[in-house]
Sequence to fold (307 residues):
Amino acid sequence: MFNKPLSELKIAVIMGGKSAEREVSLRSGLAVTNALTAQSINAIQIDGIDKLLKSDLKSFDAVFNILHGEAGENGELAGFLSSMGIAYTGCNLKGAVLSWDKSIAKTIIQAHGISTPSSQVVTNNNQVQIQGTGPWIVKPTQEGSSVGLFYADNKNELHTCVNKALKLVDSILIEEFIEGSECTVAIVKGQALPVIRIKPSIDLYDYEAKYNSTQTEYFCPSGYSEKLEKAVQQDALNAFNVLHLKGWCRIDFMVDKQDKHWFLEANTTPGMTQTSLVPKAAQAVGWDFNQLVLNILSTAFTEVKND
Fold:
């Protein structure tokens, strides 16, 4: 699994950075660092890519990427580390580019027979040509943790939400709203963990509901039928493969009232906080947090990153 005893490993935990998800990334990074340290691994915290570039990279055995948001998930970090020949967790440049932009990911997913809500990408309000009467979800094409997420019930609300979203980012996705329940599948070392069904404290599972609400409920077992559970897990693995992801990720879906599931997005550097979903899924298969972190770290040494 590793190229030397754990006590001899030196791991850079890259976290924080400058994205809208900085605070969550810092919390995730602290949890990961504590888990590595508890297993006698020398874990060094590094805040953002700028500080990573100034560090002695060759002194590390691997980089544990827990940098949420753009720099950690759009391929910038993966491409740099690959060029330096340094082992790291998470997907490579190809997987990052294909998954980071939600519109690109949805196009690839749909081409491989996985259902995803209809959508349109716009950079200004005059481009809105979405069909139907609503409702819709408005979200950035390139952002994570449900940052900048809005719900629009009609055309007037849609244009208002588009204006709000475009004050935060340059490009947004207007997506058909699927009424039903949101769920997610964590994948670690090629294994699809049990499905988690999410019941937010408010109608929209946004940043606030994910990280700051104590009322959001998570169900694992999901409560879905065995047939649906397996179908969602299989499509999560299918999405993982066609998007050329590696190591670990989390794939999000909606399940409608007819039990049809719809791909929403792939998260290549999921949260690892106390309220995060990958640790909850890991618990369901008997992994404590320390074992989960070790399993993720092992993929830096065992999975090829150069394709």
In short: The longest helix spans residues 226-242.
